[in-house]
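Lecture 7 notes: from sequence to structure.
We start with the chain below.
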Amino acid sequence: MGRVTDRARIRTVRVREGRLYAGRKGDHVAVEEPLDIRLNGQQLSLTMRTPGHDVELIHGFLHGEGIIAHREDITEARYCDGAVVDDGSGFAQNTYNVMDFTTTRPQLLPLATKNFTTSSACGVCGSESIDAVRQKSRYALLKDWQLDPRVVLAAARALNDEQAVFARTGGVHAAALVDLEGNLLVVREDVGRHNAVDKVIGWALLEDRLPLRDCFLLVSSRASFEIAQKACMAGIPLLACVSAASSLAIETSEEFGQTLVGFTRAAEDGDGRMNVYTHPERVDLAGAEG
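Predicted structure tokens for the same chain:
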């Protein structure tokens, strides 16, 4: 598999007490490479991602687009033999940047291409986007549990410790599936926040854990429409993000009955804060003051 970090030579510039200092050093950077996704031999999509967990990534992507529902819908996933380059060593190296997925039903491809174009095209309005999710979603979001907000904050602190690539580069996003006791079931990192989400949902699909009714999704980025969509498609009742939520993410979560939490900020001493945008009934505030 390809590397997830690389080294770059950089110039450092600092200002201290009004004086300018410059230097040179090596720095770790996150790797970003294209992944050509093919379905039954035909190109479906091209995404920029951090190499690693590509099978999970594509499973999650195909599920989020409504193309597959179960892991049995895919009979084979393979890197294409022709994706090789000469690195100067005299040996052909596979770049691992082209993957072909074979579906149980080959006739999925025309439908898949149409659905992907319709649901992911730029410029669609909010109502059209939400309608597209409604048509493809298979799961109702359960409302039979409440979560102590301190569990969410503890999970956010734990996620910080699991972001190895971010600690080295500062250049990737993370996503985690968390159970109702606050245990991190899986953590994935990627230069694309939507890719990190696809990887954890793809992991769950391959583990036969869908729908994720007794979990919440925690992301180290903002909550966009696409992340709320992917969570709804996987049956996840609560989405928590470290940063802000977009207007369409709020509309989508409100429409589907999903609890959306933003600005989930946890301190090492156990303190923290969060904003609840939609469906606060899943957040247990019985012991709250004020």
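Points to note: Residues 83-87, 117-124 have pLDDT under 50 and may be disordered. The first helix runs from residue 54 to 64.
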